[in-house]
Write a structure and sequence with these properties.
With 520 residues, the chain is of the alpha/beta class. The protein has a single domain, classed as Alpha-Beta Complex (Amidase signature (AS) enzymes). 38% of the residues lie in helices and 12% in strands. It contains 16 helices and 13 strands. Strands 1-3-2-4-6-5-10-11-9-7-8 form an eleven-stranded mixed beta sheet, sandwiched between helices. A two-stranded antiparallel sheet has the order 12-13. The longest helix has 24 residues. The chain is globular and about 75 Å long. Bound molecules: glutamine. Glutamine binds next to loops.
């Protein structure tokens, strides 16, 4: 098997056994990026030189009998919302064009300290606002299963990179579903850790009370390995939890035997049914059936306030985003547009520059949310909107607490549909927002969640995902149950779901889409 088709765990074994070097593995992935990224556009920036330098250093360490940890030498891609010292960081926005951070996010610093070469920065919806990566100022990313379709969002670049074997691992961020929903529509695994479980230092904030960085991988075990590298307390993040992470890799290895005897699985009544594609629901029901056969006690739980989660999120998120994005003032970072006003002969004022920069630098979706958020926070409306939303947020948390009284984990489909066509929802904000119906409650309450592939869900042969949620700081449960379901499903399919993806590269060149197969 070519190096880039292997999981991170298998690559780590190969490095340890001396069957491959980090330089070879990293080069194989860079070659793959060269080969397919012209069609995918998963990357905004590729750092071949830096990655190969770090890979060579990893090989030298290994030769000297030293190791910086289980993923030392395994290449990784990082969502462009994480600050990377010396590497451009744009958050998918024109307003950060040309900005090169002088420091590393804690997650990035931990990747470097763990010896993982960073191959590049991945595409995303501008400031992580979106579910399709079409709101990137630098053009959309395409889904490797069908290039005419979206790879999910906001972290579509990370998911597409992992699904297309451009990188074995990637970092995503999840504020309302941006790791899990791209995972579902690209047939990959995505984990949103417990809020406070992974440092937010250097993660350019969308909504501080909701944002979490996490792993994007092809297997549950790979996600656990990566989570242990990036997670744990960080004094630089005031919301970081001062507790050690649970044993995640151990949980993933334990789950791999597929035995769920005695595990109580709660099916959330409100996350399913109307608005969900029939094939997505069918794959979900099969997963639940497999868990039952494997010994799980399946119960239905009701979380009535979840039906208000989306509306609540779209008050809290814009409110926090509007205040966060105020820092892009044309003075400190990236873009600066200087208008030639001079009505009275004078030069433009600081305000003129700020207005012109923000007008040119932000895209429509970002402007929409700044306006919504500013409105929701304005005096006279604050109690009616923001204050009310915070109360509903508490109800969501209470629903979770009650449900976890009856179940160890909760399950639902991850996203209501399979990947839709590029262009289909981009002009319909509400239709776009509805993609996160099932993922948002976890962010409002801070609980951890994983999405794993549940199978091919429609006549076009596109993947869907199943979501597993656990109580805060019980991230080990999502790994144990996720790994169990993953191995039960693999036994059904006779292998990994991604092996059923149509080849990105065919004889005669890159395929552009199912409808235009062979063209381009
Ligand atoms: N799609 C959601 C939004 O647009 C979630 C984004 C995210 O998780 N970053 O807000």
């Amino acid at each position: 098997m070519s190096p880039e088709r292997r999981t991170a765990a298998a690559l780590a074994d190969a490095l340890a056994a001396g069957e491959a070097t980090s330089v070879e593995v990293t080069q194989a992935h860079l070659d793959r990026i060269d080969e397919v990224d012209g069609a995918l556009h998963a990357f905004l920036h590729v750092d071949a030189e830096g990655a190969l330098r770090d890979a060579a250093a990893s090989d030298a360490r290994r030769a000297a009998g030293e190791s910086w940890g289980p993923l030392d030498g395994i290449p990784i891609a990082v969502k462009d919302v994480m600050a990377t010292r010396g590497l451009p960081t744009t958050c998918g926005s024109r307003i950060l064009a040309g900005w090169v951070p002088p420091y590393d996010a804690t997650v990035v610093a931990r990747l470097r300290a763990g010896g993982l070469p960073i191959v590049g920065k991945t595409n995303m919806d501008e400031f992580a606002m979106g579910s399709s990566t079409e709101h990137s100022a630098w053009g959309p990313t395409h889904n490797p299963w069908d290039l005419a379709r979206i790879p999910g969002g906001s972290g579509g670049g990370s998911a597409a990179a992992v699904a297309s074997y451009e990188a074995p691992l990637a970092i995503g961020t999840d504020t309302g579903g941006s790791i899990r929903q791209p995972g579902a529509v690209t047939g990959t695994v995505g984990v949103k850790p417990t809020y406070g479980g992974v440092s937010r230092y250097g993660l350019v904030a969308l909504a501080n009370s909701l944002d979490q960085a996490g792993p994007v991988t092809r297997t549950v075990l790979d996600a656990a390995l990566l989570h242990e590298v990036i997670g744990g307390h960080d004094p630089l993040d005031s919301t970081s939890i001062e507790q050690p992470l649970p044993a995640l890799v151990e949980a993933a290895r334990r789950g791999a035997d597929g035995d769920l005897t005695g595990v109580r699985v709660g099916v959330v009544k409100e996350l399913g049914g109307e608005g969900y594609q029939a094939g997505v629901l069918a794959r979900f029901e099969e997963s639940v059936e497999l868990m039952t056969k494997a010994g799980a006690e399946v119960v239905e739980v009701s979380c009535p306030s979840f039906v208000h989660a989306l509306a609540t999120y779209y008050l809290i998120l814009p409110a926090e985003a509007s205040s966060n994005l105020a820092r892009f003032d044309a003075m400190r970072y990236g873009l600066r547009v200087t208008p030639d006003v001079a009505e009275n002969g004078a030069g433009p004022s600081a305000e003129d520059v700020m207005r012109a920069t923000r007008e040119a630098g932000f895209g429509d979706e970002v402007k929409r949310r700044i306006i919504l958020g500013t409105y929701a926070l304005s005096s006279g409306y604050y109690d009616a909107y923001y204050g009310q939303a915070q109360k509903v947020r508490t109800l969501v948390t209470r629903d979770f607490a009650a449900a976890f009284g009856h179940a160890d984990v909760l399950v639902s489909p991850t996203a209501p549909t399979t990947a839709f066509k590029i262009g289909e929802k981009v002009d319909d904000p509400l239709a776009m927002y509805l993609n996160d119906l099932a993922t948002i409650p976890a962010n409002l309450s801070g609980v951890p969640g994983i999405s794993i592939p549940s199978g091919l869900a429609d006549e076009d042969g596109l993947p869907a995902g199943v979501q597993i949620l656990a109580p805060a700081m019980a991230d080990d449960r999502v790994y144990r149950v996720g790994a169990a379901l993953e191995s039960l499903l693999a036994a059904e399919w006779g292998g990994a779901l991604l092996d059923q993806a149509p080849p990105l590269v065919e004889e005669g060149g890159l395929r552009r889409s199912r409808d235009h197969g062979g063209e381009g």
